[in-house]
Specification:
Layout lengths: L1 E3 L4 H12 L8 E4 L21 E2 L2 H8 L7 E5 L3 H9 L2 H4 L1 H4 L6 E5 L9 H19 L6 E6 L4 H14 L5 E5 L5 H12 L5 E5 L6 H14 L3 E3 L7 H13 L5 E3 L3 E4 L2 E4 L4 H10 L7 E3 L6 H13 L6 E3 L9 H6 L8 E3 L11 H8 L9 E3 L10 H8 L7 E3 L7 H11 L11 E3 L8 H10 L8 E5 L5 H11 L5 H5 L16 H9 L5 H14 L1 H4 L2 H5 L6 H8 L7 H5 L9 H12 L6 H11 L1
Helix pairs in contact: 3-6, 6-7, 7-8, 8-9, 9-10, 10-11, 11-12, 16-17, 17-18, 18-20
Length: 620
């Protein structure tokens, strides 16, 4: 089924437009910390083999032929004409063992699309023949651990026929995701049989057509036989029969730990495509009372208030779920869910971004939402895109302050005004506030982060030793706001004030609008040794800045102290302003040597015996 998105739809379309033109001009997004994209639905495709995958080309193929240990992850894209042409150019009779006999390749990702070849039947047939040989080569491999086929290059029966022996007999295969299959009875039976004889811990069927309640039961029976722990069924149009069959199977299953049923968003116009029905959610919710689920991802679904209430009933007696993600799933007011979480000690992450239907004027209802969450065990709380307004700040903060485990909070794209954000950060100055525990905080953007807001942020962070990542936008920030943040990061009044400055708020990513001085300080704060961070700031901003700064203070020290001064200042520093300016990786440089050089030039008595004698005579 396909549904138009209510609430957040305009924002979704605007985000899509911004993303499509991201490289075309200046980006006013200001990020201190991690990327602000909160969609983690593709996290399962990220593997730890090397920094980046090899593209399927001649270089990668040659390395595979040599069984090179560096080639552990390869990606093939049917959308890439060069990769398609190369696939078709391989003499598979001669090179069929390049992949099947390879023992170093651990991860293979395939995204095929025959449409790239247009209507040229001869090329299409050559591609299909080559793709079949490619799949047979994969099927012969017995050391591959992860296989993802986002879109098969062959039809479903042929794909499953070729891969079934591989699934059954490769004892090392741990992770298998197949996408965009067209399911029929014979194919499902064969696939379920192969899965039931495998060693898989992770299995996924993404965006497949033809799923029925009977087919779902067959798949889930196979999942239960071998104790699969992670199950991915994303981007489906699941009718009531399929959802209910899944829920009933989960009630009998005690091995599945992670279940994702993430719908798909089409941005033009903003529409959810692929979704589970409220009845399906209700069936899954029943399994929460006696199941083994630890993670449930239901982002981008039309759950509705009915599904939200069903989830609340399931969560009321649940003691296993650690992560619940409901972003853009329209669960209604969420009050029932909040009440179900009262006293819950296991849920660590709750994502209700763009999911609550409460208006900012519904003060009493927001009170009813936040109050049950007091003292809950949440570590990560995503409220992005909900209509939280200025009148709701006090209630929200009162509740957040009681969450002693909370380290990540997302309040991006709420309806809090600049004056509301000033109130928020004023409340954060209270001893024992949640800001003393937060590591990652996302607030708002656009015209809502003014100089006055940034001054309030800077003031709240003066004595903060917790917050490492801060995400916000600001279109019209001036030196007034940036100077306040710079002062918090490095109060240059004295050595003591620099030492007591904020050495925690860090920089990751690119700050397009921040002055270089702020960027350098944030980069300095990335250092793990905060004593070292303070030392570097003292050298750079107290002694070296402004034409030797306060060098005269060192010259007044006793001679006996100089070896200690040289030893302190001569250690390695790890930040280069020039490197930050060019957005390059900082090189290891010894900024302290510049200070020693200037100190030596200003104190010749240290090395000139005659000057030293004259100095001693003056003292006598």
């Amino acid at each position: 089924m396909s549904n138009s998105i209510d609430g957040g739809g305009e924002e979704l379309e605007r985000n899509a437009n911004e993303n499509s033109s991201e490289m075309g001009g200046a980006n006013n997004e200001v990020i201190s910390g991690v990327d602000n994209d909160d969609d983690n639905s593709n996290a399962r495709y990220e593997y730890s083999y090397g920094d980046d995958p090899y593209e399927f080309n001649e270089e990668a193929f040659d390395l595979l032929a040599y069984n090179d240990e560096d080639v552990e992850w390869v990606e093939f894209s049917g959308w890439n004409q060069e990769q398609v042409d190369f696939l078709c150019s391989i003499d598979w009779e001669r090179d069929k063992n390049v992949i099947s006999n390879n023992t170093k390749l651990k991860t293979l990702s395939i995204e095929g699309d025959r449409g790239i070849l247009g209507e040229m039947d001869d090329k299409r047939m050559q591609f299909v023949r080559s793709a079949g040989c490619f799949y047979h080569s994969i099927a012969g491999n017995r050391t591959l651990k992860n296989l993802t086929i986002g879109r098969s290059m062959l039809d479903t029966p042929e794909t499953i026929k070729i891969l079934s022996p591989f699934i059954e007999n490769n004892s090392n295969l741990d992770h298998l995701v197949l996408g965009k299959l067209v399911l029929d009875s014979k194919s499902v039976t064969k696939l379920a049989s192969a899965v039931s004889k495998s060693n898989l811990s992770t299995f996924g069927l993404d965006c497949c057509n033809g799923m029925t309640g009977k087919f779902m039961t067959q798949i889930m029976d196979a999942v239960g036989v071998i104790g699969i722990q992670n199950l991915y069924l994303d981007k489906y149009d699941m009718d009531d029969d399929v959802g209910i069959a899944l829920g009933k199977s989960l009630c009998k299953n005690n091995t599945v730990k992670t279940l994702t049923l993430v719908g798909e968003i089409e941005y033009h116009p903003p529409t959810i495509v692929g979704s589970i029905t409220p009845a399906g959610v209700a069936a899954i919710a029943i399994s929460l009372a006696n199941g083994s689920l630890e993670e449930l991802h239901l982002d981008n679904n039309r759950i509705g208030p009915e599904g939200g209430e069903a989830l609340a009933r399931g969560m009321a007696n649940n003691s296993t779920l650690r992560i619940l993600k409901l972003g853009r799933s329209n669960i209604g007011g969420g009050i029932g869910l909040a009440e179900a979480l009262e006293g819950n000690t296991t849920l660590e992450e709750l994502d209700v971004s763009y999911a609550l239907s409460l208006g900012q004027e519904d003060t009493l209802l927001w009170d009813m939402f936040f109050s049950p969450l007091r003292n809950c065990a949440l570590c990560r709380f995503n409220l992005r895109g909900n209509t939280i307004g200025d009148v709701n700040i006090q209630t929200m903060v009162d509740s957040l302050n009681t969450m002693m485990s909370l380290t990540e909070l997302n309040l991006h794209q709420t309806e809090i005004s600049p004056s509301g954000w000033i109130t928020f950060f004023d409340l954060m100055k209270t001893p024992g506030s949640v800001l003393e525990r937060l590591i990652d905080l996302s607030i708002t953007g656009g015209d809502l982060v003014t100089d006055e807001v940034l001054v309030s942020v800077a003031s709240a962070l003066v004595n903060n030793n917790s917050l490492q990542q801060l995400c916000f936008f600001g279109r019209d920030l001036t030196d007034v706001g940036w100077s306040a943040l710079e002062h918090t990061l490095c109060n240059k009044t004295s050595i003591d004030t620099i030492y007591d400055s904020n050495h925690t708020l860090g920089y990751r990513g690119m700050i397009m609008m921040a002055p270089l001085t702020v960027t350098c300080l944030l980069k300095l704060n990335e250092g793990k040794d905060k004593e070292e961070v303070a030392r570097q700031k003292i050298i750079q901003y107290y002694f070296l800045e402004d034409n030797d700064g306060n060098m005269h203070e060192l010259m007044k020290m006793d001679m006996e102290m100089m070896p200690h001064v040289f030893g302190c200042f001569g250690r390695y520093d790890v930040v280069s302003q020039e490197g930050v300016r060019r957005r390059q990786t900082a090189k290891r440089v010894v900024v302290g040597l510049e200070l020693i050089y200037r100190l030596v030039r200003g104190m010749p008595a240290l090395f000139d015996p005659l000057a030293k004698a004259r100095l001693l005579c003056k003292r006598v």
